[in-house]
User: Fold these one by one.
Assistant:
Number 1:
Amino acid sequence: MTEAIHPVLLHSCCAPCSSAILEWLTQNGYAPTVFYFNPNIFPAQEYLTRKNECQQYCRKLGIPFVDGDYDHALWREAVKGLEHEPERGLRCRACFGVRMLATAKCAQRLGIESFTTPLAGSRWKRLDQIREAAEEAARLTPGTRYWDMNWRKGGLQQRRGELLAQEGFYNQLWCGCEFSMGHLTMRAPEDLPSYVRDFVKQLGSAKNKEGTQPASPSPVQSPIVPPNHPFRKTGALEGEKPERRS
């Protein structure tokens, strides 16, 4: 294994998406620290399932893990008015802004210049939105820079699939937030986690009642988190000290 000489903060959305990237980093001279900050995930039970799995995987690999705050209500404020935006639309851009700013602030606090994210390895995400959000976060946070890496390439997608099967990772059925769960109404209830069945049933009832998806609200001037937003001032930007394992 190559000697680790380059520290990097990896914002992790989950263990499956981070696994191949962490393997690549440790094999190519990088010393990753994982920052888990995903207040978009709904409900809290799903958040804990994903976070705990990521934390356990980092513990297994001996990689430092930083546990960020979870405040879904504050996240909802950050995407207010964008609830009916489609996936990959303005709501996702605002969500990336919240999470990347928190990541940059954590990197600054830990003295790690470079940060990156496996969100840039997902075929379901827009790379341009992630890049824009992360580069803006770096500009707002002196001493940090976004490592703009396309984690879809270099065989990492295939390796991700191999590690998912090898590790028996939890099978996530939706992106994260409640606005990404509409397709679950097409699944049998027994295929869903018990803690979302009632919510998905309500989604299905609302869809049947309305007939069509409500029209999207008028676009806001900017999906970027404003300077006075609580996410810029609370502990959500700081996280905790990394849990280190030998």
Note: Strands lie at 6-12, 30-36, 65-67, 114-116, 145-146.
Number 2:
Amino acid sequence: MKWAASPQYIDLCQADFAPMSDPTPQTEKVVKQDAAAEGERSLDELLADAQAKLDEQREAWLRALADAENARKRAQADIAQARKYAAERIVEDLLPVMDSLEAALGAAGAAPGALREGVELTLRQMRSAFERAGVAEVSPGPGQRFDPHRHQAMAAVESPQEPNTVLAVLQKGYTLHERVVRPALVTVAKSRALENGAGNPISDSNLESN
């Protein structure tokens, strides 16, 4: 006689010996969640670091802007002071000249020789002050070529001297650091051949410049 298992017994055995489910999918899910959380934290930290650097750079830029503005104001103040007191040095050099002139006026009963010596001393002081200030005389000698940039011709005089050369200086000129402040007033030689209007010796077309 054969024994036959009932259907209920077979179902119970199958339930007891059924294989366990694979835990891998659940573990991977946990790991992915942890990695995502860690990634979110790292992103927040990066954003915070970037914001801190931006704030630091903005503060540095504001400091640089303030320094530049302060430098500009200091430069403007220095320029204003320099313009205001630009003549201070030459004034200091001219004070002895003023003192000498006042002393000469006060010596009304002085001998002519002493008075002349005082005037010569004053002139030397004036020239020294001019030299220290970069002022130089423009006083061409006879026969020197006429220079329209440094000389001003007041008259053209017939002369056996070479045309377009200086005959005499009527008034000295002066330069300040090579810049002409006042040209020298001169008379210029002209040839007798130009007497009938053949040309103008003191015109720009006939005068040579240095």
Note: Residues 88-132 form one domain.
